[in-house]
Every structure is written in C-alpha cells, then in structure tokens.
Task: inverse folding
C-alpha cells in the first residue's frame, strides 16, 4: 500500500499563500513535489507519518516562489562562469577594482567579460569607465564590456582578438567608432541594431561542455539564492536549437535542474524564419518535456523585420515594409499548429502593425485558446491594449526602464515616461499581464529589482519615473511575479500560489517583503528556496537543510568563485562592501543634490575612496563627513 502521509511538512511559518480563499497559513504538507495540504500547524502537523520529514520555518515569512516571465537562462548558464557580473555594484571604483583583480588571474587566450546586467546610473560616479581606464588595467588581456544594448567597450587587446582594424566596415545599423586616423577606438555602438554587439561577443572563447554544465548549475543556484524557482526562457541571438539546449537537457536528465524552465524557440535565420518554424512545428511537440524543462512555444523573435531594438539613446526604428507579410507567414504556421508565441515589441508603432497581422489571421484561424503575447511594450497605447484584450492575448513586461529610464525620459520627456510601460492600466483593463527581467544582458536577473521598480517607480539611479497613481501595491506586484506568470507558461492552476494541488515552490525571504521600507525591497534575497518540496538553497537558520551542494565554479579562474553574483555578495567586506546594504543606494542615487561640508559635491569620489573617509565606522565616516548623513 502506498504511504498516505506527506513526504515533508513545513510548519511554524507566516505564509502568504496568494490563495484568496485562504490568504495566510502556518504550515504546508508536500508529496510528490506538490502541496497536498495548506493550513495551520494544528491542521497540518497531525498529517505526519513515521517517515514524514518535518521542517520548522522558525516563524519566518514565506512567499510563493518567484517566476520570471522573460529571461535568458539557457544562454546565460552557458556563459555565467566566464562573466564578471557588475549587477548591483554601486561604485564604479569597486567595479574597476573587480576588473583589475579578474584580469590578473585570467589566463591567455581567455577574455574578461562584463556582459550587461548593469547601468552607468547605478554607480555613485554616474558614468561608465573610459577606454583609457580599461586599457590601463588590461594592456594584454582582452576585455569586453557590454552596457545594456547600446554599446560595448573593447580594450586594445580585445580589438586585436576580434580582428577589427581600420579596414573593417561598419555593419548595418551598427557603428565601430574610429579615431582621426580611422582606427577603431574600442567603442561599438548599436544604431540601433544590437547585432554588432552580439556578433563581437560571439567571437570570444567558449567553455567546454563539462564547464558549461557547472556554469549553468551555478547560475541556477544564484537565481535560487534570490528566490527564483521558475523562468520562461525567451531564446536569444546566437542561441541555436537544439545545440545550445543540450546542457540543460543533460541537467534535466540528471535531476539537477533547480529552476523550472519553459523555453520558447527563437528564429536564428533572417529571411528564413518561415522555414525555421515549419521545421520546428513538425519536429518539436508543443509542451514536450516535463515540469522542470519544457517547450513553451515560439519567439521572442518571430521575424527579424519585426524586431524594434530598445536603445532609447537613438530614435525609434521604423520597421520595414515587408514586416507584415513575413510576420503573417510565421503566425499562420503557429496558429495552425496551436503553438503559443511571444513577440519582442518595444514601441506601440510595432505592436499596432503586428496586431493588424494577428487580426487578419484570426479571421481565418481563430486565436482563441492560444496564449500569445507581446514582450516589453514600453510605449503601448490604450487602443492597442484593447485590441489585445479583444483577441485574448497578453502583455509580458520587464524592468528594463529601471536600467534605462533616464535615457527614455531625456528622449521622450517626463509625461511619456509616466507610464512606460503602463502596467497599472493594463491590469485595470483586464488584460493578462506578468513581470520579469529580460536578463542577463539588458537588465539584471535579480527579481527584487523588478518588484521594487513596480512598487516605487524608481530607476536604479534613483530617478522617479512614475507618479503614485501608476504604481502597484506590494501584493499586486508579487502576483505579477507568481500566479500571473502561469498563464504565460500555460500552467494556470498548477503554479504561482501556495495551494493544494500546485507545485511546492516557495521561499523564505531574508526580510519580510511586506514590512521592509520600499527602498529596501531591491536588497532582499532568499534564506530558504524550495522547488518541488526540495530545499535547493538554504542559508543562515536553514543552511543545514540545503540539498544542492555544488562543486566549485569552473574554471578555477572563474569570477564566480570569488565574487559569486549580484552585488559581489561573495565578498561582503571587499568588492561588495558598497553594494549590499540599503544606505549605499541612497548615496548612489543622490545625484549630488546636496553638498558635504568636507567634500563639497564629490560624494561619489569620497565614497569610493580607499582613504579612511570611506570607512563608515571611522571618525570621518561616522561623525566628520555629511556624505553619509542619509
């Protein structure tokens, strides 16, 4: 007879379930990876049998696991251990020191790569490094630094490695900046197409298979540390199917996936997109896989002629006249095969033209029941929102504006910035909507930055983007990262809440999400992350429960070994010292609005200094300097 008792019980918690029938609970019972009962300790503990494991949550607050609606974990995992991540680093001085230390241990012919996830506005200094600074740090080791999708900085060694000379032509919609003699300086610009940035990065060395497996596991663990239990992977440039999915499939076969992953297939061949999707719809079964690694449809790139790159430093790109015809060919294939799809669309001008195509296809092949949606939608209009509602589609927003809102406001003005994207209005109109990151290049993988952005309306640089009327309360923002995402992965009723019958995915945040000051939300992490009833991450009170020990990051020179991840948390008293606590956010975002009696307006220089004035515990830091009076 099978054991009718649950396999594990978690009790003595303060659980936010997001189940409106029972919004709070104290305990949960789990069997076969799902919640089988949710209730009080008095209701749940008697369900235990002799073989039931019982875990004390120590009166900590509990939330459903966070679920990213748009990220690039497949690609990110293959490269994570090679990347020096500046995500969350609040001082350019610290970032450059990280670069200097990494250059010192990176062997030839390897590169040092800082591949997105940050913005110059997050730094106290409010700027990017100069090419002279990078070249001084790394005269011989190639350095590639990607900032959003607008530019890349390459030192002289990297220019030699990729072979760019005065004879190298500019690619379409990209620019290789040159000096007076026509020689490349090391600055690459997307104008506005980011292909030049992708293509240059793709010239670098790759990790061997064994290291890619290790790298992907370390990336998933970093996501678990931040409370992420699931993602939808939106494909990506230079990410080929099925070759680049081999590592994730191997981890799935070995039972080593700790972040549930649903993946969309992203076309790789301009002007051959129809052939890609004809091939895939005949060879790939929709939803093939399991609850940990599963196909989820098409996109975010359906056709290259519909890709409106989101570089707010340049004018909005106009989509070419062949867009509608090429998009219709692909959408008809997907609709006929009942494949869901997603489409990258930053601007309403692109969205409205795509909707013309969708409405045309719908007249012949009804789209009802297909969970298709637009990604990003920063400038979507009310009219387009209503058209999406009428067709039964959705909108997946990401926190890209937290990283480049300053550029958007400079180009389009404060009024246009107030609802970009208009997530509050979309919710009010009843359209399906959820939230994510678009990590790892144009934004960070940290979900708490997204939650903070929707609640506070601020960029990482401290700029107030949205008025109070356009902001979300904390519960609504949390639902955007949990139960709302289930529609976008075609799993409604199966995940997103702590409720009997749903996946047993939940987290214990480092502090109470509902209780911390708003400006501290982005600093939260998870102290306990559970996926399918298994503890995949534990620290502090829950460290002994961790069932996901990993070997050291490979190779041995990997930045992941030392700095770990977001905010350089692996060195809380070193590289991460100016980034891991809320007080530094105020310094980084002050914009020198006030003067310090000792330093004048040079707050950033004083904070980043290695002299005693930067020591908060010393005389100048504690008493003599008003830079710290925040």
Result:
């Amino acid at each position: 007879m099978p054991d009718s008792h649950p396999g594990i019980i978690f009790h003595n918690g303060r659980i936010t379930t997001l189940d409106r029938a029972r919004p709070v609970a104290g305990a949960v019972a789990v069997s076969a990876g799902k919640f089988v009962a949710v209730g009080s300790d008095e209701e749940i503990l008697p369900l235990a049998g002799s073989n039931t494991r019982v875990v004390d949550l120590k009166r900590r607050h509990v939330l459903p696991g966070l679920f990213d609606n748009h990220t690039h974990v497949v690609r990110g995992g293959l490269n994570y251990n090679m990347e020096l991540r500046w995500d969350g680093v609040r001082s350019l001085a610290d970032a450059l020191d990280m670069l200097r230390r990494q250059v010192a241990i990176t062997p030839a012919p390897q590169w040092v790569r800082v591949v997105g996830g940050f913005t110059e506005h997050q730094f106290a200094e409010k700027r990017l490094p100069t090419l002279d600074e990078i070249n001084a740090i790394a005269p011989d080791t190639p350095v590639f630094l990607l900032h959003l999708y607008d530019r890349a900085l390459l030192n002289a060694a990297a220019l030699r490695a990729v072979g760019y000379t005065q004879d190298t032509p500019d690619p379409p919609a990209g620019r290789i900046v040159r000096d007076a003699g026509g020689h490349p300086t090391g600055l690459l610009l997307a104008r506005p197409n980011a292909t030049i940035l992708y293509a240059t990065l793709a010239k670098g060395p790759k990790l061997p298979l064994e290291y890619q497996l290790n790298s992907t596991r370390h990336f998933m663990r970093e996501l678990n540390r931040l409370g992420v239990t699931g993602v939808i992977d939106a494909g990506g440039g230079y990410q080929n199917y099925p070759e680049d999915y081999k590592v994730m499939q191997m981890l799935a076969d070995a039972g080593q996936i700790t972040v549930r992953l649903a993946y969309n297939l992203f076309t790789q061949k301009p002007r051959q997109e129809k052939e890609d999707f004809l091939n895939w719809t005949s060879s790939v079964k929709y939803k093939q896989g399991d609850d940990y690694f599963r196909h989820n449809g098409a996109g975010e790139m359906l056709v290259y002629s519909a890709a409106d790159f989101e570089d707010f430093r340049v004018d909005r790109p106009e989509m070419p006249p062949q867009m509608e015809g090429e998009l219709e060919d692909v959408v008809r294939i997907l609709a006929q095969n009942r494949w869901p799809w997603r489409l990258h669309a930053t601007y309403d001008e692109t969205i409205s033209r795509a909707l013309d195509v969708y409405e045309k296809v719908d007249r012949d092949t009804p789209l009802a029941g297909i969970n298709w949606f637009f990604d990003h939608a920063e400038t979507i209009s009310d009219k387009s929102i209503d058209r999406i509602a009428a067709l039964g589609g959705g909108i997946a927003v990401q926190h890209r504006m937290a990283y480049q809102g300053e550029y958007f406001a400079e180009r389009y003005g404060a009024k246009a910035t107030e609802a970009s994207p208009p997530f509050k209005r979309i919710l009010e109109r009843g359209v399906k909507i959820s939230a994510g990151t678009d990590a790892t290049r144009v934004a960070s993988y940290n979900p708490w930055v997204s939650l903070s952005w929707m609640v506070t309306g601020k960029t990482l640089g401290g700029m107030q983007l949205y008025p109070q009327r356009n902001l979300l309360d904390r519960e609504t923002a949390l639902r955007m990262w949990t139960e709302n995402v289930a529609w976008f992965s075609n799993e409604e009723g199966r995940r997103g809440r702590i409720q009997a019958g749903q996946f047993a995915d939940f987290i214990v945040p480092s502090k109470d999400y509902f209780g911390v000051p708003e400006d501290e939300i982005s600093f939260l992490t998870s102290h306990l992350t559970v996926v399918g009833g298994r503890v995949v991450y534990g620290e502090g009170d829950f460290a002994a429960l961790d069932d996901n020990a990993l070997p050291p990051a490979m190779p041995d020179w990997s930045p992941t070994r030392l700095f770990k991840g977001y905010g350089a948390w692996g060195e809380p008293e070193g590289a991460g010292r100016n980034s891991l606590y809320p007080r530094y956010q105020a310094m980084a975002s002050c914009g020198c609005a006030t003067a310090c009696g000792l330093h004048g307006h040079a707050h950033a220089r004083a904070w980043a200094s290695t002299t005693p004035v930067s020591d908060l515990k010393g005389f100048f830091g504690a008493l003599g300097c008003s830079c710290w009076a925040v």
